[in-house]
Structures are given as structure tokens and as C-alpha cells.
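Section 5: illustrative case.
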């Protein structure tokens, strides 16, 4: 593993693994607080009685889709150094918004600039993807995290018909469940 694999992430490592990396913070994956357990990955609290394996090892039921996390696991992390160059024009989309779309886009851009959470909710075909571009661009310029709920919107950022291809490298993290 490279040291950069730990930047800004909680990487699961079994406690039996001998991993010695300089300056990496090592956390127990699950903390015990009396009869309750606390998962350091998903931040959920749950009953110690209810969620343990036959061998007595406790596990988090809330983030199983990311891989089972047990009381025998450790989480390793390093603060993200954010050594990325600032790009004043991170997205190349040059489309035109209607006056109402512009108004909405401006509000969202202002919210992104002050690192405020927001939700864009509109009917199909209202131009939500286009409205988000100024806010996404603002978030990238400020080195903020930007979360999109639907995976197809994340992929659309690189395949939008009017050349929305980012002029910078973006990292996309997602989980794709398998259907059985």
C-alpha cells in the first residue's frame, strides 16, 4: 500500500496484520462503551448483545455493504494534505441556463462556497445536472467534497453532451452492491 492510500480515508486492516507506516493514525474499528458498541467507520451505535459472531467477535451491522467490520479490525488514516493546485475553471461546460435555472444555480454556488449542505430537488427534465455545474465547480475550486446521490450523475460529469469533461483529475468513490 502507498502512503497516499490512507489520505483522508479510513482503511480497514485486520489487527493481526503488521502494518507499520510513519504518521498513520491507528483506531480500533469498533469501540466499546458499556453495553453499547460504536463503529468508527459509519458512526453508528448498537447493542453489544445483538451483533456478534459465533466466535464472540462483535461486528457493525450498519456498514456491512462496505465489508464486515469487526472488533478485531483496525482503521488506519492520515489527514489529506490537499496539495492539489487550484484551478479557476475546473469544468469546461459552457452551456446556457434559463433565468430560473441561473437563479437556482447561483444559490447553490453560494452554498457550496460557504461549505453549506444543500439539496437540489426538481422534476425530471428540469436541468438539475446543468444547474449543479456552477456549484460543483465552486466546490472543486475550494477543495471541498461534493456528494451526488446517484452514481449515474457522477458518471455523467465525464460524458455530458456539451463537453463537461473536468479539466482536473477527480476521484470518484462509490459502492456498487451485487444483486443476488
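Designed sequence:
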Amino acid at each position: 500500500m502507498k502512503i497516499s492510500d490512507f489520505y483522508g480515508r479510513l482503511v480497514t486492516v485486520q489487527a493481526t496484520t503488521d502494518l507499520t507506516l510513519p504518521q498513520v493514525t491507528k483506531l480500533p474499528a469498533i469501540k466499546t462503551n458499556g453495553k453499547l458498541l460504536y463503529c468508527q467507520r459509519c458512526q453508528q451505535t448498537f447493542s453489544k448483545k445483538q451483533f456478534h459472531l459465533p466466535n464472540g467477535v462483535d461486528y457493525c451491522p450498519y456498514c456491512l455493504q462496505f465489508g464486515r467490520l469487526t472488533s478485531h479490525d483496525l482503521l488506519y488514516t492520515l489527514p489529506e494534505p490537499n496539495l492539489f493546485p487550484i484551478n479557476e475553471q475546473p469544468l469546461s461546460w459552457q452551456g446556457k441556463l434559463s433565468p430560473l435555472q441561473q437563479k437556482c444555480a447561483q444559490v447553490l454556488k453560494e452554498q457550496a462556497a460557504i461549505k453549506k449542505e444543500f439539496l437540489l430537488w426538481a422534476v425530471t427534465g428540469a436541468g438539475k445536472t446543468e444547474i449543479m455545474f456552477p456549484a460543483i465547480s465552486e466546490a472543486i475550486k475550494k477543495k471541498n467534497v461534493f456528494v451526488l446521490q446517484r452514481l449515474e450523475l457522477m458518471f455523467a460529469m465525464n460524458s455530458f453532451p456539451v463537453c463537461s469533461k473536468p479539466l482536473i483529475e477527480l476521484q470518484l468513490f462509490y459502492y456498487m452492491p451485487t444483486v443476488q
